[in-house]
Every structure is written in C-alpha cells, then in structure tokens.
Amino acid sequence: MRTVDQRPVSRRIRREWWHAVAWILLGLALSAVAVGPASYVPGRVATEAAFRNARPCAGEGAVRDGGGSCLRTIRGTVLSAENAKSGKSTVFRVRLRPPVPAPADQSIDLDWHGDLSELIEPGERVDVTTWRNDVVAVSQGGVSERLSGLPDEAPALFTGAALVGVWSAVLAFIAAFGSARRARCLATGRPVVPRVPMGAKPVAVVAVPLIAAFTAGHFWDTWTAVVMAVVIGAFAAVPVTILALRWDREPSSTPSPDHRVDAPLTVSD
Questions:
Q1: H/E element holding 129?
Q2: What tens digit of pLDDT does each residue of 227-246 get?
Q3: pTM above 0.85?
Q4: Are 37 and 162 in contact (CB under 8 A)?
Q5: Which of 44, 77, 90, 202 could bridge 155 with an S-S bond, Cβ 3.0-4.6 Å?
Q6: Residue 252 confidence (pLDDT) above 90
Q7: 3-class secondary structure, 80
Q8: Going by C-beta distance under 8 Å and a sequence separation of 6 or more, which residues neighbour residue 212?
C-alpha cells in the first residue's frame, strides 16, 4: 500500500510561514524608516515656497529683517579661485577677501567647467546672491551661475527617499502575502501557480517609482533628484521583488489524487 511522507511538506509549510513573518517584520521596519524623511517634507515645502517667493532686498525692508527673507546681494573681492576636490568630484572653489558678511565668508563651490570658471580670477569683484544662510548664485560681468543644493531642491530629495521606503515596504508585504499563500496551498495539496509571470514583475517594480517621479516633476523642477529617486527605488525594489517571489515558480500541473505537490512517495507493506 502507498502512503505519503508528510514530513518534507510540513517542513516547507513551516518555512513559508516563517518567511511570511520575516517579510512582515521587514515591511514594518521599512515603513518606520520612511516616516523619517516624510516628516521633513511639509517643512521643506514651506521653505521652498518662501525661497521661490523671495524678492531682492531693497531699502529699509532689508535692514529690518537683516536680509533673511529677501535675496541679498553681497559684492566682494576674490581672494582665491581655483579647482579643488570636493569628495570625489572637482569644483571651482572661490573665496572672497574678508571682511564679508555670512554666508559669503565661506568658500563657494561652482561648476569647474562652467562659464564663471573661465572668468573669475583673484582680485576681481563678484556679486554673491544670498538667501537666509545659503549662497544662491554668483555673478560677474553679466554671467551668473546658480548653485546646487538650494532650498527648492530639498522637498524632492526627501519625497524621493520616503517613496523608496514606502515602495520597498509594499513589496515586502506583497512577499509576505506570497509566502502565506504558498503555505496555504501546500497545506491543502493545491499546486502553487504564479499569479504574475516572472518577467512582468521587474517591469511593475520599476514602473511605480517612475510614475511617481514624473508626478513629482510637475511640482518640483529638480529632475536630478527625481531621476536619483527612480534609480535608487529601482535598485532597492528589484532585488527585493526577485528574492521575495522567486519561489513562486512551482509547476502548474494538477496533482494526481494519490499524492500531493512536492511530497515524495514511499512504499510500505
């Protein structure tokens, strides 16, 4: 008489349930991580609005607020202007001769192959535009260069980071559902049939961050941050999806009545 050895099936059922629990815990952790950058978005949006609405300082208004909420122009003499290393990149670093008010008293990093890198030399006069504690732009002889990392770029960066965490958490919860589904199928003897073809899964993973990025592009004109959010999201999401759903590739044939899927048969008298 033929009997079924249930031990391998039981072990795999337990393993799938443990996978489901692990994916749920990972999803909760990623959700908590996403809360951090998301909590900064409202404040950064308010700062962005103030920066975009700022006007050049004029007369008594600039004196009353110290140039904090308006665009202040500081004229100074160049002390040094040379290419320098900033991390792994090269910048055109300009320093003004003191005394100059903050934040123009700090070194200013410009594009090392920009127009100003060919024009600015020590001893020349330049105009530095500042807003609150940020240097916004540097100009000389009608040529101006806007600096990177300004307040109107911050919302996209924090939103992108939050989206990466949220989307990765969603994928983890989907993986938990898949593991629980496989465990239920094994327990009832039903075949584990993929719901979505393996080739279509990476497309869906990349499509969601891409759509979110294009949507963000309508609100913030910071395409570098948007593209980086897509790239980071894809790099984080694709491996998670492949690891989570790679087991969901069982044969789709219907099991015969005398045995269950993945259950080896033994013969006993």
A1: strand 125-131
A2: 555 565 566 555 655 555 55
A3: no
A4: yes
A5: 44
A6: no
A7: strand
A8: 163, 167, 229, 233
Q: How far is CA 252 from CA 8, 193, 194, 248, in A?
A: 20, 5, 8, 11
CA gap 138, 73 in Å, rounded? 9
254 sits in the region (left: phi over 0; alpha: psi -120 to 50; else beta) called beta
* Dihedral sign of CA atoms 238, 243, 245, 248 in order: positive
| % of residues, the chain, pLDDT over 90 | 16
Cα separation, 44 vs 60, in Å, equals 28
What residue has token string 């897509």? 230
Q: Name the strand (E) or helix (H) holding 181.
A: helix 154-188
Of 80, 145, 72, 144, the closest CA to residue 110 belongs to 145
pLDDT grade for 247, boundaries at 50, 70 and 90: very low
Predicted local confidence at residue 261, as pLDDT:
43
How many angstroms separate the Cα of 93 from the Cα of each of 97, 122, 126, 137, 174?
13, 11, 13, 13, 49
Cβ pair 191, 250 in contact under 8 A: yes
CA-to-CA dists, residue 219 to 118, 126, 155, 267, angstroms? 34, 33, 10, 68
Q: Going by C-beta distance under 8 Å and a sequence separation of 6 or more, which residues neighbour residue 168?
A: 30, 233, 236, 237, 240
